[in-house]
Amino acid sequence: MATTVSQTAFSSLKLDPALLQNLEDLGYQQMRPIQAQSLPAIIEGKDVIGQAKTGSGKTAAFALGLLHHLDVKRFRVQHLVLCPTRELADQVAKEIRQLARAIHNIKVLTLCGGMPFGPQVGSLEHGAHIVVGTPGRIEEHIRKNNLPLKDITGFVLDEADRMLDMGFQDSLESIVNALPKQRQTLLFSATYPENIEKLAAWVTNKPVRVEVQESDVHSQIKQLFYRLQDNKQRMTALSLLLKKEKPESSIVFCNTKREAQEIADELRSQGFSAVALHGDLEQRQRDQTLVRFANKSASIMVATDVAARGLDIESVDAVFNYHLARDPEVHVHRVGRTGRGDKKGKAFSFYTDKEGYKLVALEETLSVDATAQKLPDFSVLDKPAFKAPMATLQIDGGKKQKVRPGDILGALTGKNGIAGKQVGKISVLDYCAYVAVERDAAKPALKKLSEGKLKGRSFRARRIRG
């Protein structure tokens, strides 16, 4: 009896057999909606405009298309992928490499701002098949004739709306003008406002439009709304709910960079482990913030929408809307950070009477129950703030010094060291590394790293506070 292949199975695609085999090895069987809708057109070589948010599976969609069309024997830059941030570029490059495991000798190169320029020039001289990078740095390499474009057949704009939000319009125009006219262009954007519509019309040719509806906030998320007397009550409400709920990880969304920093500072003064994420941070500060939040040495991240977009942050226990989002679509993005997969999540939203129109828009557009809830009793404020379970140690040595996670784990757990179970996430960047250890083990762990050696060398180590 013949077996039928599901229309949403990866095996139903006319993909390179090596890619299909690797997908099977990785356990990828059924396509997600954005993949099922866009991949057939991408494989056919058509331009595609895809509207889907972070976490929808769009990276695999365009990555598989690029790899399918790649001629690995031609050691030239054939595909260019633009991302708004270095973190997203690193994630995209990592996923492309994973999906390309079955293709031998493929080289994927990342070129991002905030990293030394010289080593990137050297890497480009050695050649690559696929380049993933941020607009500003890519534009700079093109301007200095380091990045050859004549062989490019595939061009991807990932999180296009975020790139425009961050002010990359001029860089994008400069890059597009330098690309070959004959190419396949894939544009992905979480939202589709007028400026994205104009950009899409300019960079694509007879595109196939694909849209994955994400307006239904996951049923795993419990949404609670709190009507406040005035703006001054927001911090009190936030402290009350944090102390009552005690979420292990939470994101507080607010509307301005200044507010994000002020809220994080205030929470820290109350004893919470809080970090801020906004556009005024230097790359090093941004790296530290994301590492600390991911490794559970900071339990609260206060962020602006622009700073948090494009980050593949694992599901958090709770989301707090310090102010209601400016439109329902942004509210969906915020709230969607919690309750991912099979996990349950909570979203707490604060509003004053002045924001009533935003509440009406949410009720009408998303059909949420916005009944005003009662805040916990003020006596809860007398309880101590909860501390994050981990602490982060920074080591002044990274990939460029050949430091690997195993070296750090070995140094920590060697003779007179701490137990392996007390070590959390280890993140090795180019020039430094971060390791999470249980809070109680931070002192002996730091002593062990400071007095011991990695790769036969002594590296400076310190605890990240704040």
Automatic annotation (TrEMBL):
It comes from Bermanella marisrubri. This is Putative ATP-dependent RNA helicase DbpA. Residues 39-210 form the Helicase ATP-binding domain. GO terms for molecular function: ATP binding; hydrolase activity; nucleic acid binding; RNA helicase activity. SMART domains: DEXDc (SM00487), HELICc (SM00490). Keywords: ATP-binding, Helicase, Hydrolase, Nucleotide-binding. The lineage of its organism: Bacteria, Pseudomonadati, Pseudomonadota, Gammaproteobacteria, Oceanospirillales. Pfam families: DbpA, DEAD, Helicase_C. Gene3D superfamilies: 3.30.70.330, P-loop containing nucleotide triphosphate hydrolases. A motif (Q motif) lies at residues 8-36. Residues 8-36 form the DEAD-box RNA helicase Q domain. It comes from the Bacteria.
